Amino acid sequence: MPFVHERTVRLADTDAAGVVFFARTLAICHEAYEASLAAAGIDLNELLGGNGIVVPISRSEADYKRPLRPGEKLRVTVAPVLVSENTFAIRYEIFKLGPPEKLAAIVRTEHVCTAPAKRERAPLPPAVRAWVQAG
User: Fold this and answer.
1) Which domain holds residue 64?
2) Strand, helix or coil at 34?
3) CATH code: domain of residue 102
4) Is the pTM above the cut of 0.90?
5) Rounded distance, CA 132 to CA 126, Å?
6) How far is residue 58's CA from residue 71's CA, in Å, rounded to a whole number?
7) For the chain, how many structural domains are there in total?
8) Beta-carbon count within 10 A of 87 CB
């Protein structure tokens, strides 16, 4: 079952036209990703080299369905899926809460676990693998 993260669009999220800047959409998704990991009890430092591994984003894509404006309430769903022993993808859906509720964007990121010291891919840490499989 996907993790759900809710937030409000902030003025800092928007561009000069008053709508969410495209790169901020990815930042909103990343915020939901971090909240999902924290809810699963995963220490972010584990993904930032704490265990000799890092799990960077290797690919991202977004499909923007409608503009989002300051003050609008959002719901972001986070649905991870295992791709290989060292790679997972996350599908995000961003909904503008209503009434009526409307799908605003679909974002997909791929993450790869690597061991920088060895310059090679590494298996996902057990806690991360469990989080992905539970998603």
Assistant:
1) 3-134
2) helix
3) 3.10.129.10
4) yes
5) 10
6) 32
7) 1
8) 17
